[in-house]
Amino acid sequence: MANGTWKIARNRGGAQLPIALLAALAVALILIGKAQNTLFDRARASVTDWAAPALQVVRAPLVGLDRWMGSIGDIFTVYQENLRLKAENARLRQWRNAAVVLDDRVKRYQLLLHAVPDPSLSSVMARVIGRSNEPFLQTMILDAGKAQGIKPGQAVIDARGMIGRIFLTGNHTSWVILLTDLNSRIPVNIEPGNAQAIMAGDNTRAPSLDLLSQNVTLKPGAQVVSSGDGGLLPPGLAIGTVVADPAGGYRVVLLADSTSSEDVNVVDFKLKTEQPPAASPNDLPATAAGLPPAAPPPAAPTVAPIVMPPTVKPAPVPTAPFTATPPAAQNGAPADNGNE
Amino acid sequence: MERTGSIMGGRVLSSLVPVSLGILGALIANFPVSVLGGLVPPPLLVFMPLYFWAMVRPDLMTPFWVFTLGILQDLLSGGPPGVWAASFLGAYFLIDRQRDMLAGLSGIGAIAGFAVSALAACFTAYVIVALYYWHVPPLAPMLVQLAMTVLFYIPAVFALGIIHRRLVGPYRSDF
User: Fold this and answer.
1) Dihedrals φ, ψ of A265, to 5°?
2) Does residue A257 sit within a domain?
């Protein structure tokens, strides 16, 4: 420890680059990284792909050790924990019954209203093989990448709720930016009240809420779900509950615990491209300018609806989803009753 | 003749020890597996050999190697490129200017000297990240990382001292 005993070398060699030049290079790298980070990200993904087998091997005994150490503390609270879980299970059963009834009712209403069905969600299950808790970055590494269909931007959830988003993919690994990370920004809905907000991570355990409307007052315990705005994330993903921030504003206590998640799902959200409505005669530029409409081409039956007078309504044509629905389901009865 | 070749080979190997330990420190600290469950940020292990040999053997820890170790730290930590490279160079500049004073410290003073240098590196990184994201990050994680780094330096400096005496020190015949 005693540095006073060290002899200091004065010769630093003649080949070294000046500090100023290297500092300028570092600043240039920062600026290039800000503008275009592809090269660095590609290198990072390659390193992770290369190190993935080692990560899996090293992680296994550490996870076992972690579980073993965690279970030591659980021994003293197992009785109280069992009672608490029984009570919670009873409450959840009641909620499950209510949810099944409400889900069925919502489906019937959607059918009656000819509502657009929810977009289909598929997911890829992946295992967490690494976590990085840096002062300026909170990430997680998964053992699934491009080969498994993972793409940047996809949501990562566990059994409890959303954890983060994919931000970098290698061939067999991917990096997740956690909701608590400094760079995480998620559009969310707060229920009840349908308040819109942006949930922003700041490297603390509870991200903050930036409300889009200033005159909204939230109640602690309100549910936070993804809003789906922007089409990047599916709407309705459970995220957390609202708590008041002692420093002012609101924060979100996340349902998922990224420090203990082992298996996660990467949600592939395929939002259907919304088709623009067909042009009516009034929308045509010639009609809007007061000019007579152009005569339709003779052999173009597809343009017939455009020249159709607005007062004439086409006969309703049943579409495939409605004809495919069994009548029993439309009456609210289970579909398998039809077999009896 | 053989003896001369052996000495030259040994000299080359010994000159690689500081950088190799820096690379090893970057790999260990950024290995995304934590015994503590990720509750605290990992210490800046790469900064320990960097500081030690920048102070006692700056001919082996040149600005180029400092820059390279910073880039490696950037690459492995997942952060934006250039942040730790610039921060380490900033700290190196401080060490370079205050080498006589830092090398003359002993005991708690030596740890304090390291802590000041690490603080310079962390604070530079903090400012760069704040400018990069245009958002002031929380100070606490950085301070925790700094505390972890200083805490780990206490046993590490003994190991670095032994390595310096056994592997690097004997070849210091030119000064």
Assistant:
1) -110, 135
2) yes
Cα–Cα separations (whole angstroms), residue B68 to A41, A281, A321, B23: 17, 67, 61, 9
Are residues A217 and A171 part of one domain? Answer: yes
ipTM for the assembly: 0.83
30-89 in chain B: CB under 8 A from chain A: 30-35, 37-42, 55-60, 62-64, 66-67, 70-71, 74-83, 85-86, 89
The answer to whether A313 faces chain B, any CB pair under 8 Å, is: no
CA-atom Rg of chain A in angstroms: 29
Please state, in angstroms and rounded to a whole number, the distance separating the CA atoms of residues B17 and B8.
15
Quote the pLDDT of residue A151.
87
The rounded distance, in Å, linking the Cα atoms of A47 and A25 is 23
Q: Which of A117, A136, A169 lies at the terminal end of a domain, its last residue?
A: A117
Flag whether the pTM goes above 0.90. no
Q: What is the mean pLDDT of residues A126-144?
A: 82
Q: Are A176 and A156 in contact (CB under 8 A)?
A: yes
Task: State how far the Cα of A209 lies from the Cα of A143, in Å rounded to an integer.
Answer: 31
Q: How many CB atoms lie within 10 A of CB A291?
A: 10
Nearest chain B residue to A42 by CA: give it: B75
Restricting to B residues 131-150, those with a Cβ less than 8 Å away from any Cβ of A are 132-133, 135, 137-138, 141-142, 144-145
A135 interfaces chain B, CB cutoff of 8 Å: yes
Nearest to B55 by CA among B9, B118, B143, B7: B118
- DSSP assignment of A254-323, as one string? ESS-TTT--EEEEEEE-PPPPPPPPPPGGGSHHHHTTPPPPPPPTT-GGGHHHHS-TTPPPPP---HHHH
Residue A282 domain-assigned (yes or no): no
Chain A residues within an 8 Å CB radius of B90: 23
- Taking 90 as the threshold, does the pLDDT of residue A43 lie above it? no
Q: Can you give the length of chain B in residues?
A: 175
